[in-house]
Amino acid sequence: MLKFILRRLAMLIPVLLGVSFLVFTIMSLTPGDPVEMYLGDNYTHEAHAAMTHELGLDKPFFVRYLNYIGNAVQGNFGISYSTHQPVLAEIEARFPSTVILAISALIFAIVLGVLLGTISAAKQYSAFDSASTFAALIGVSMPNFWLGLMLIIVFAAGLGWFPSSEFSGVKSLVLPAIALGTNSLAIITRMTRSSLLETIRQDYIRTARAKGVKEYKVIIKHALRNAMIPIITISGLQFGFAISGAVVVETVFSWPGIGRLLVETIKLKDMPVVLAIVLIIAVSFTVINLIADILYAFFDPRIRAQYKTKKV
């Protein structure tokens, strides 16, 4: 297991290098002068030339990229062009809000998705199953920015039940979490249903029923646990998508997270902040999937047996 974890962490290095190089290239090719924005009202030709040299923007592309990677490895992501503050300080102030939103959206998606998927599988071809499948299809097809706007119109502006923007307590978390988690909810519901239907057709399930075990115990204790492997996989992926998908939802709800910060800094061509946020999203995505892989062993004893056999 330790070798597996180390191998997966080693794979993170080329991923981060590829992502950073791609974003660095795109930001370098986009029009706009970050030095002019950095100087603001203090702009002069002399100050522009001095600041360009100070920021290293007068150096060749690959030299600038290698310098950035060398500093980033040491934990130095530079200074924001727009706020003149350390990039890490900017991100540290916003990242917890994004994590809270992503976790809330995933909890909403997993709890409701597993529940609906389990009931649909247990009552296959029933009216509930058909309605659940249809709702899941709509949820998968629905853009989260459109859903967010509809939620604001109905539940914030219309009924006044929830605030429409900013963070002001638990109530302000409800609408953005639903907007961000609905797509994941639909996917987890469909995955739970299909995985559980495959599991309940196995011989050991028929044996449990033949022994007189109550149906709800057969579904929850025997079938659902063995059907959790693909559900864990898709949940890990969805958490990664929630971190990255928060860019749109945070903008719609004016949520003070790194997604909204990313949109703001892209407009300003604030390369240090953009690069740092993209790298953090890439790391989060990879680490979350690693955690999902480790959880496999908890839910599937066959995987634990494989590791023990290799160890012996």
Automatic annotation (TrEMBL):
SUPFAM superfamilies named among the record's database cross-references: MetI-like
Domain (ABC transmembrane type-1): residue spans on this chain: 95-292
InterPro entries on file: BPD_transp_1_N, MetI-like, MetI-like_sf
Keyword Chaperone: no
Record keywords: Cell membrane, Membrane, Transmembrane, Transmembrane helix, Transport
One Pfam family linked to the record: BPD_transp_1
Compartments where found: Cell membrane
Protein name as catalogued: Peptide ABC transporter permease
The species this protein was found in: Neobacillus massiliamazoniensis
